[in-house]
Design goal:
The protein has eleven helices and 19 strands. It has about 625 residues and is α+β, with helices and mostly antiparallel strands. The longest helix is centred in the middle third of the chain and has 117 residues, at about 255-370. The protein folds into five domains: about 20-65 and about 75-190 and about 260-375, Helix Hairpins (Orthogonal Bundle); about 385-430, TSP-1 type 1 repeat, CATH 2.20.100; about 440-480, no CATH class; about 490-545, Thrombospondin type-1 (TSP1) repeat (TSP-1 type 1 repeat); about 555-605, no CATH class.
C-alpha cells in the first residue's frame, strides 16, 4: 500500500498537503496485503524487525516447518496459544501506534514544509518584482538622461544663436552710434563759427545771359548733416531773386536765422538720437544679458537634473544587482527546500510502508497459529476513525491543538485500540510581518526654474514585509512644478486714468497708458510704449467752438504771462496766434486781465548752445 498527498484536507478550503491512507479502508488494505503474503515472507519480516520475543520466534519456526516434530511438541508445550496470540496482538498494537505517530509526524512536516515553500515562493516573487522594478527604474533613468542631454544640447544651440544675434544687433547699433558721434564731433569742431556773417550761404552770378545759383553749405562735411542741411534748404526754396530778368529765375537764399535754427535743431535731434541709440544699445545689452543668464540657468538646471538622473541610474543598477543576487539565492533555497520535501516524502513512504508490512506479517502469523490449533474464533482488531483536529491555540508562531478520534470497530480477541486523544503542535509557521513605513518627508526643490520640473518626496521603509505580510505602499511621490515657459512676455500694469482733453472745443483727444510691471524674459516680447495695447486715445469735447468761445473775452480777473517762441521758423504764425489770444483775453477792454509777454528763443551760436546744454551734452 502507499500514502497519498491530499492537497485539500479541509472541505472547501485550500491548505497544506496532508498524509492519509489510500482511499480504501484499513481492513480491505490489510486483507489485500495478507492474501499476497506467504507465511515465509511474514516470518522473514518478523525476524527482520528484531523486536519479537524468543518464544514467539520459536513458534514461528515451528509453523514454517524448520523444526522437527519433537521440537514442535516442545514448542507447543512451552508456549500456549493464548500467550502467543497476546504477544502478537501487543506487537500489532505497538506497530499501529508507531505507524500512527509516524503518519502524524510526516503530516506535520509536510504542512510545515508546505508553508515554508509557500513563504519562499512569495519571497521569490517579491524579489522578482524588486528586480523588475529596478530594471524599470534603470530604463526610466536612461530615458531621462537621454532626454535631458537632448534638451541641454538644444538649449545650448539656442544660446549660441542668441549670442550671434546679440552680437549682430550690437554691431549694428554701435555702427549707427559711431556715425552719430562723427556728426556730433563735426558740430563740436564748428561750434565757434559766426553763423550770420557777411559770407553768404548762397551765391548768384550771371552766366551766358542767365543767372545761375549754387548752394554752398559752409563747412558741412558729415554726410548725414549734409543731407539734413540740404533738405532744410530745399524746404525753403522756390522764390525768385529780385532784379532778375524774365526767364532767368533763381531760388532765394535762405535766411541766416533759419539756417542757424535748423542747424541747432539738427544738433539737438542728433544728441537725442545719440542718447536714444545709447539707450537702445544698453537695453539690447541688458536684454541679451538676461536672456543669456536665463539660458545658462536652464542649462545648469538640466545638468543638475542629469546628475540626479545619473545618481538614480547608479542606485537602480545597484538595486537590480542586489535584487538579482537575492533572487538567485532565494531560487536556490526554494530548490533545496523542494529537494528536502521530496526526500522526506520518500522516507515517510518507506518507513510507514515498512510498519504496515510488519503489521500484516504479524496478522498473517496470528492467523496461522489459529489454524494450526483449529481455533475457529474470528479475531477483530480495533479500528478507529481519522483524527479530528480542534482549533489551534494560535494562528501563527506555534501553538497546540487537541486531536481526537472514535472507535469504529471494537477489538474482539485482536489488537487493542490506540489512544483516542492527543495533543500536537500547530500553526508553527512564522507570523506575518507587515510592512511599516515612515511618514512622508518634505518636498524637494523643483528641478528646474522654468520649462517644467519635478518635485519629489520619499518615505523610508522601517520594516520590510515577511512571511506573507502586507506589502509596502509607494515610497516615492512626484509632482510637476514650474511648468511655465522659460520665455515669457512682459507683464503690464493696469490702465492709468484718462488725461484731460487736449482741446476745450472743436474735438480733442484724451489718452491713458499702461506701464510695464515686469519686463520680458528670454525670447519673450513686450509691446511698444505707443502700441495700442499700451496707449489708448479717446475723442473728447467734440462740440463746435462758438463765437463766444473764440472772442467772448475772459470774465474773471487773471494775471497771464504769455511765452512766445522767438525762433525763425513760424514766427509770423506765432505773432498772429498771440494777437488773437490777447484780443480774446481783453474782453472788450474791461481790464480784468493783466497780461505780460515774454519772448524766448534758442542760442545764436553753438558755443552758447553748448553752454546751455553742457550737462545734457556731457551725459
Amino acid at each position: 500500500w502507499r500514502l497519498l498527498e491530499v492537497d485539500a484536507l479541509r472541505t472547501g478550503a485550500a491548505g497544506p498537503p496532508r498524509w492519509e491512507p489510500a482511499s480504501w479502508s484499513n481492513a480491505t488494505r490489510s486483507s489485500h496485503i495478507m492474501r499476497s503474503m506467504t507465511m515465509d515472507q511474514a516470518v522473514q519480516i518478523l525476524h527482520r524487525h528484531g523486536d519479537a520475543p524468543p518464544a514467539l520466534l520459536a513458534a514461528t519456526r515451528a509453523l514454517s516447518g524448520r523444526a522437527n516434530e519433537k521440537k514442535e511438541t516442545a514448542t507447543e508445550d512451552s508456549m500456549r496459544l493464548e500467550s502467543a496470540l497476546g504477544m502478537l496482538n501487543r506487537l500489532v498494537t505497538d506497530a499501529e501506534q508507531k505507524k500512527d505517530l509516524e503518519c502524524r509526524e510526516c503530516s506535520n512536516y509536510q504542512e510545515t514544509q508546505w508553508r515554508i515553500l509557500e513563504a519562499t515562493r512569495q519571497e521569490l516573487s517579491v524579489e522578482s518584482a524588486d528586480a523588475a522594478q529596478a530594471h524599470r527604474d534603470i530604463l526610466a533613468a536612461e530615458t531621462e538622461i537621454d532626454g535631458l542631454k537632448g534638451r541641454a544640447a538644444s538649449t545650448q544651440e539656442m544660446l549660441s544663436v542668441l549670442a550671434r544675434e546679440c552680437a549682430e544687433e550690437s554691431a549694428s547699433l554701435r555702427g549707427q552710434l559711431a556715425v552719430m558721434l562723427e556728426d556730433i564731433g563735426f558740430m563740436e569742431r564748428t561750434k565757434g563759427s559766426a553763423w550770420c556773417s557777411s559770407q553768404r550761404l548762397f551765391l548768384a552770378q550771371r552766366c551766358g545771359g542767365r543767372w545761375a545759383g549754387r548752394d554752398r553749405p559752409a563747412a558741412v562735411a558729415a554726410p548725414s548733416l549734409l543731407a539734413a542741411v540740404k533738405g532744410g534748404q530745399r524746404s525753403r526754396q522756390g522764390s525768385e531773386l529780385p532784379g532778375l530778368s524774365a526767364g532767368c529765375s533763381l531760388r532765394r537764399t535762405p535766411s541766416c536765422e533759419q539756417v542757424r535754427d535748423d542747424f541747432l535743431r539738427l544738433r539737438t535731434e542728433t544728441l537725442e538720437q545719440r542718447d536714444a541709440l545709447r539707450g537702445e544699445l544698453q537695453a539690447a545689452s541688458t536684454s541679451c544679458r538676461q536672456a543669456k543668464r536665463n539660458y545658462h540657468s536652464q542649462i545648469e538646471h538640466l545638468q543638475a537634473r542629469s546628475r540626479s538622473a545619473q545618481t538614480k541610474l547608479a542606485t537602480a543598477m545597484a538595486k537590480q544587482n542586489a535584487a538579482d543576487e537575492r533572487l538567485h539565492n532565494k531560487a536556490k533555497q526554494l530548490h533545496q527546500l523542494e529537494a528536502q520535501r521530496a526526500s522526506m516524502s520518500a522516507q515517510c513512504f518507506k518507513t510507514v510502508g515498512g510498519i504496515e508490512s510488519k503489521i500484516c506479517g504479524l496478522r498473517k502469523i496470528r492467523d496461522g497459529l489459529q489454524k494450526m490449533n483449529s481455533n475457529t474464533a474470528h479475531l477483530l482488531d480495533c479500528e478507529v476513525s481519522k483524527w479530528v483536529r480542534e482549533e489551534c491555540s494560535a494562528t501563527c508562531g506555534g501553538g497546540t491543538q487537541t486531536i481526537s478520534r472514535s472507535v469504529l470497530v471494537h477489538p474482539v480477541g485482536g489488537a487493542a485500540c490506540p489512544p483516542l486523544q492527543g495533543v500536537q503542535r500547530c500553526a508553527e509557521e512564522p507570523c506575518p510581518v507587515h510592512c511599516s513605513l515612515a511618514d512622508w518627508g518634505g518636498w524637494s526643490g523643483c528641478s528646474a526654474e522654468c520649462g517644467g520640473g519635478i518635485m519629489e518626496r520619499v518615505r523610508q521603509v522601517l520594516v520590510k514585509p515577511r512571511h506573507s505580510g502586507q506589502p509596502c505602499g509607494e515610497t516615492l511621490e512626484t509632482q510637476a512644478c514650474k511648468t511655465e515657459s522659460c520665455d515669457h512676455d512682459c507683464s503690464l500694469a493696469a490702465w492709468g486714468s484718462w488725461s484731460s482733453c487736449s482741446r476745450a472745443c472743436g474735438g480733442g483727444l484724451s489718452s491713458r497708458q499702461r506701464h510695464v510691471a515686469a519686463p520680458a524674459v528670454g525670447a519673450g516680447t513686450c509691446p511698444g510704449a505707443r502700441s495700442r495695447s499700451r496707449l489708448q486715445y479717446l475723442a473728447c469735447n467734440t462740440q463746435a467752438c462758438s463765437a463766444s468761445t473764440s472772442s467772448g473775452g475772459c470774465q474773471r480777473k487773471l494775471d497771464v504771462v504769455l511765452l512766445l517762441d522767438g525762433g525763425a521758423q513760424g514766427w509770423p504764425e506765432v505773432r498772429t496766434a498771440a494777437a488773437a489770444l490777447v484780443t480774446a483775453l481783453d474782453g472788450g477792454g474791461a481790464g480784468r486781465v493783466q497780461l505780460a509777454v515774454q519772448l524766448f528763443g534758442g542760442p545764436r551760436t553753438l558755443d552758447t548752445f553748448s553752454a546751455c546744454t553742457s550737462s545734457a551734452g556731457a551725459s
